[in-house]
Design goal:
2 domains; three-stranded antiparallel β-sheet; 37% helix; globular; binds pyridoxal-5'-phosphate; pyridoxal phosphate binding; PyrdxlP-dep_Trfase; serine biosynthesis; transferase
Length: 374
């Protein structure tokens, strides 16, 4: 990357669509008018041609390698955002609307999944952390599972509330119920190692660590594919998508191409372990600065569940000071730092493309702002 490109790029801490690696953008730019000597852009190539076939197969193979996805799982690229799966999953996996689904509600996104699910099944809240403002998670011994749920669904990282389940431990609790485990990993997908074999279905909207908005990646165990109801509309039908290799209708070809570039970028950087290493450094740096600011900055999330991807924080619970912070941050090229409109405060999203250096620059700015506004 040239130094002029570098200086023009914002330090984007947005929660999604999030920052993309500059190498990926440059590669897409380079290939935009003439993809691999075809004289056409990737956006102008047939989804049934051999060039796109290679893009799709590469993306699937690279994802399989990066996450060590066992052969008993298929990878689907669906259209519509992750929200479409809030309906698509019960449509596929519940026999009828009398089936019970257990939802673990730890933030806005799992709450939305529960509310949408109610339209297609008997949705049961196993635990609801809203009365605790989604700041922590009650111990699993206090969760109330139903007798025979069709499956259990949870969200691994709540993007708005900044709360994340550490590691895969939660799956040990859930697997004791003996029913499929469904996980929304939209905002921490590809950020850390994950044992896919512990899950039956993992889904992620691409626009955080895996690409651009418009596609949702689904990793699904073959045993669930055979349970898909046949009267589900084709665009949502997991079994049909799998049989047709996500090509039953025209897929979002450019989006799949960008995801493919990102997967190759991650491999080149050293793989998921390297992403995890960098993400831990970034999150530790920011949380430790917040915790050592003598109460000027605060993060109210239970330290055990603090998200490594979306760090939410306040400045003396003072919205005016937070507005001032966001405005001054812009002058330092630090953008998209405000909290979600439903919760206020501030939020720094530390996705894979956000560098350790960018995080250090944010912390330096926070230090300067604190000294000037104490
Ligand atoms: C964890 C999580 N789930 C679901 C969604 C919904 O994604 P989409 O806007 O692609 O429907 C988001 C969006 O930010 C999210 O962060």
């Amino acid at each position: 990357m040239s130094s002029s490109t570098q200086s023009q790029r914002a330090l984007n801490f947005g929660a999604g669509p999030g920052m993309l690696p500059v190498e990926v953008l440059e590669q897409a730019q380079k290939e935009l008018l003439n993809f691999k000597g075809t004289g056409k852009s990737i956006m102008e190539l047939s989804h049934r041609g051999k060039e796109f076939e290679t893009v799709l197969e590469d993306a699937k193979n690279d994802l399989r390698t990066l996450l060590t996805i066992p052969k008993e799982y298929d990878i689907l690229f669906l259209q519509g955002g992750a929200s479409s799966l809030f309906a698509g999953i019960p449509m596929n996996l519940c026999k009828d609307e009398n089936d019970v689904v257990d939802y673990i509600v730890t933030g806005s996104w799992s709450k939305s999944a529960f509310q949408e699910g109610k339209l297609y099944c008997k949705a049961n809240k196993v635990v609801d952390m809203e009365p605790q403002k989604f700041h922590t998670v009650l111990p699993a011994q206090e969760w109330k599972f139903s007798e025979h749920p069709a499956y259990i669904q949870y969200c691994d990282n709540e993007t708005i509330h900044g709360i994340e389940f550490p590691g895969d431990d939660i799956t040990s609790v859930l697997s004791s119920k003996g029913v499929p485990i469904v996980c929304d990993m939209s905002s921490n997908f590809l950020s850390r190692s994950v044992d896919i074999s512990r899950y039956d279905l993992v889904f992620a909207g691409a626009q955080k660590n895996a690409g651009i908005s418009g596609i949702t990646i689904v990793i699904i165990k073959n045993t669930l594919l055979s349970k898909t109801k046949s009267n589900v509309p084709s665009v949502f039908n997991f079994s049909k998508k799998s049989q047709m290799n996500s090509l039953d209708n025209t897929p979002p070809t450019f989006n799949i191409y960008v995801t493919g570039l990102i997967l190759k970028w991650i491999i080149k950087q050293g793989g998921i372990k390297e992403m995890e290493r960098r993400n831990k450094i970034k999150a530790d740096t920011l949380y430790s600065f917040i915790d050592n600011s003598n109460g000027f900055y605060t993060c109210k999330i239970d330290p055990k569940y603090r998200s490594k991807m979306n760090v939410v924080f306040r400045i003396k619970d003072n919205p005016e000071l937070e507005d001032k912070f966001a405005k001054e941050a812009e002058k330092h090229n630090i953008t998209d730092i405000k909290g979600h409109r439903s919760v206020g405060g501030l939020r720094a999203s530390l996705y894979n493309a956000v560098t350790i250096d960018a995080t250090n620059q944010l912390v330096s700015f926070m230090d300067k702002f604190m000294k000037e506004n104490q």
